[in-house]
Specification:
mainly alpha, 72% helix, single chain
């Protein structure tokens, strides 16, 4: 009962803070509802970026991958540092200069309205069919373990997860639909502090338990009582998913991360809501620094559970369940090692992380639909108030569909996180390539990205069938398709150039003075990332 009370109290506290901070916001205007009135500061942007990204699909998926393989999955977190630095210095200055609200809006300015609608539809389908259901399912998996929902309701685990996913979806939809981006960003910041504190506390408490109260003894036992290769983050070049081959860190992982952090509407919408360029850059670089820390309380949890499973600290049923699906590693660690007085607080923080990813994606889907599909197709002269009302209705429909699809994620064959990233491959490469080509060329015609998109979907689909003669990690496939996409669009620009060159317009929406300490902070982040990889390598702990 105490767990439930502390969970409800912290959850209510976050809701109250978000309500107080947004009570004077004008949510009837386009900028007010979709971009938080362009008022976000660096720390708020960083907190919202982290919580939008960091949710149970990461905690559950990456810990599960690490349990099954080694420290390789930390690449999803640590190498994001590079993409965030590029966001700060390459992409955000151009986005803010143009005064953008969405990425498809840029594509219309650069190419034509047809491409804007096509990319919007593709993004919405991607969110609807993969990302939103995965967030709900992973969150429900954790909460079903913590609160034993299926046991209390006397139903199967899948039915318990379905009920929990429904509850999470309803609460998340309320935040996103009725609070706008400002409510999402404020709640993200509060929950972000809680998640970092609770997330770090969990492995620290676990290691202390390994050392019978001594953290130093626990570290010694942990390092010496599991195989050294489990600490290795540098895998062979021919490793297969869910392992991460080392060459993809410089190829497909860069492409994947750059799409996610620099062109993904859910992410860049926080930066677009910045009060000026300096605050946007601060937010991106603060987030880059935090991404270097996160492997120490996400991926490492998979190794902690591996230690427990092989040193008699888990029951036979728990070990058997982990052998069936490694995605249970993180929930198992929580319910086994988190002290009961803290379990309610940590459950509330996790709930906030789940809500953050879900309601952030939902808010971005609402933005994409209303501004990039509904207004140009159905009501070009719609007022801001009307668009906000339409967006709320669309959000309700989207939330219901996502809730219905969520249970099907349990059928993913290669683990939850690998499934999600693999699905992104259907649309991330052509969108990233199109944005880059659009920014840095002047004569590429609209037909180039449209034809390139169709070619990519066909080629990527073929790599997923038995007909494809080469079997390699899908991140290699994404890199080669990215190179092909860039080359294809450049050639089209030479063969069928536009009559007039593209000139990027200056909307003069915010102050464009850069952050004066930005480059120094970026260099520090890169050095820390290299140090982390040295630690988890054959010349570090793996040796």
């Amino acid at each position: 009962m105490f767990i439930v009370i502390t969970f409800l109290l912290f959850t209510a506290l976050v809701a109250v803070i978000a309500a107080v901070k947004t009570r004077e916001e004008n949510l009837d205007t386009q900028d007010g509802y979709f971009l938080a009135g362009r008022s976000l500061t660096g720390p708020v942007i960083a907190g919202s970026l982290m919580l939008t990204n960091l949710s149970t699909e990461q905690l559950v998926g990456q810990a599960g991958q690490t349990y099954a393989t080694n420290m390789g999955p930390m690449a999803w977190e640590s190498t994001s540092c590079i993409a965030l630095i590029l966001l700060a210095f390459v992409f955000v200055p151009r986005y803010l200069k143009m005064g953008l609200t969405t990425i498809p809006e840029f594509l219309e300015q650069r190419y034509d309205s047809g491409l804007r609608k096509l990319i919007t539809l593709l993004l919405l389908l991607g969110y609807l069919l993969t990302y939103l259901p995965t967030v709900l399912y992973s969150g429900a998996l954790v909460f079903n373990q913590i609160f034993n929902i299926s046991g209390l309701l006397q139903v199967s685990e899948l039915q318990g997860v379905t009920v929990t996913a429904t509850a999470i979806g309803i609460v998340g939809a309320i935040y996103a639909i009725f609070g706008g981006l400002k409510a999402v960003a404020v709640s993200d910041t509060v929950n972000g502090i809680g998640l970092i504190v609770g997330g770090i506390a969990l492995p620290v408490i676990t290691v202390c338990a390994f050392g019978h109260g001594s953290f130093v003894d626990g570290i010694h036992n942990f390092i010496n009582l599991i195989p050294a290769e489990k600490f290795n983050a540098i895998n062979p070049a021919n490793a297969q998913a869910p392992m991460i081959p080392w060459p993809v860190l410089f190829t497909g992982m860069v492409v994947n991360n750059l799409f996610y952090w620099a062109t993904n509407q859910t992410i860049i919408q926080r930066a677009l809501g910045a009060k000026n360029l300096a605050e946007a850059q601060k937010g991106a670089i603060y987030a880059a620094a935090l991404k270097i820390i996160t492997p120490l309380f996400i991926a490492i949890c998979g190794l902690l559970v591996f230690y427990m499973a092989h040193n008699g600290l888990l029951s036979g049923d728990q070990v058997a369940a982990l052998e069936k699906t490694s995605d249970l590693a993180y929930p198992t660690l929580i319910i086994t090692m988190m002290p009961k007085p803290l379990l309610g607080f940590f459950a509330a923080v996790l709930f906030g992380a789940i809500l953050s990813s879900f309601n952030s994606a939902l808010n971005s889907c609402i933005t994409l639909y209303t501004l990039d599909l509904h207004r140009p197709l159905f009501n070009p002269d719609a007022s801001d108030k009307h668009l906000v009302r339409i967006g709320k209705r669309f959000g309700i429909v989207l939330a219901i569909i996502s809730i219905c699809i969520a249970p099907a994620v349990s059928l993913a064959p290669s683990g939850l996180y690998d499934f999600l990233q693999s699905c992104f491959g259907f649309f991330n490469v052509p969108i990233l390539a199109t944005v880059i080509i659009g920014m840095f060329t002047k004569y590429t015609p609209p037909i180039a990205p449209k034809a390139g998109l169709v070619l990519h979907v066909v080629l990527y689909s073929l790599t997923k069938t038995p007909l494809f003669p080469i079997h390699c990690h899908y991140l290699y496939v994404l890199f080669f398709l990215f190179v092909f996409q860039i080359a294809f669009q450049l050639i089209m620009g030479k063969v069928r150039p536009t009559a007039q060159p593209y000139v990027m317009k200056d909307a003069q929406v915010v102050d464009m003075a850069p952050w004066k300490h930005g480059k120094k902070a970026a260099i520090i982040c890169i050095v820390l990332m290299l140090a982390l990889y040295t630690l988890f390598s054959p010349i570090g702990l793996a040796g």
